[in-house]
Amino acid sequence: MSAAIDPNAALDLLKFDSDGLVAAIAQQHDSGEVLMMAWMNRDAVIETLATGQVCYWSRSRSRLWRKGESSGQRQRLVDFRIDCDGDTILLCVDQEGVACHTGRRHCFYTAVRPEGLVEIAPVLVSPDQLYGA
Amino acid sequence: MSAAIDPNAALDLLKFDSDGLVAAIAQQHDSGEVLMMAWMNRDAVIETLATGQVCYWSRSRSRLWRKGESSGQRQRLVDFRIDCDGDTILLCVDQEGVACHTGRRHCFYTAVRPEGLVEIAPVLVSPDQLYGA
Prior knowledge:
CATH architecture of chain A: Roll
Strand order of the largest sheet of chain A: 2-1-6-5
Helix content of chain A: 10-25%
CATH class of chain A: Alpha Beta
Mean pLDDT of chain A: 96
Shape of chain A: globular
GO biological process, one term (chains A, B): L-histidine biosynthetic process
Oligomer: homodimer
Pfam family, one (chains A, B): PRA-CH
Domain Phosphoribosyl-AMP cyclohydrolase (chains A, B): 36-109
Structural class of chain A: alpha+beta
Distance between the termini of chain A: 35 Å
EC number (chains A, B): 3.5.4.19
């Protein structure tokens, strides 16, 4: 995606919760890997569609979170999809490097299996390298 | 997945919100298609791991929602994964039929594109057929 997209049709369809948020799932567009889940408010939706770079709302920091602003691990928007209820977004993205703050490609690295918890994704970059020691 | 899984390690890792819920994303295990997003409480996690059939918590009906209980479109659990924050689950599933109550394979059928909203997934089964007229 290169051109800015008018956000009005999306904003009309989205049903923001009482905190003004909708859930947003990021999926690597070609491999289908689910990378992470985060939140967007109205401004994050507008900025993401305008710039083609994914911007979330950080609930812990109460501010816009331009994914990769500290780590450089940005997400380029490839497609922006809304679910039947209008309360969840599926972002098809091209993830630069790793999506997880732990240095793993994705956040869903703990599998619950008969033998117990199993780590299924390796650390590819140390968090120190991502964020400074 | 066939054997029941002890839920305790998962329950220790999960951070339920103030409503006692965590987000749960369902992904078709082989195609990688993201099917839907819903919610689980503690009992839904326990039942899903015990039976190998996905059970959510319905926020609108305030009760356990055994996916497919009305429509027959069940989700067999293939893998159960937890994210780095412990507040989102990724369910790798084998979806019988369609995941969406509109009769589409998945819920994310509206794409927001430069030309406007585009419907990207067809209705495969009529809702009347799924739920009775």
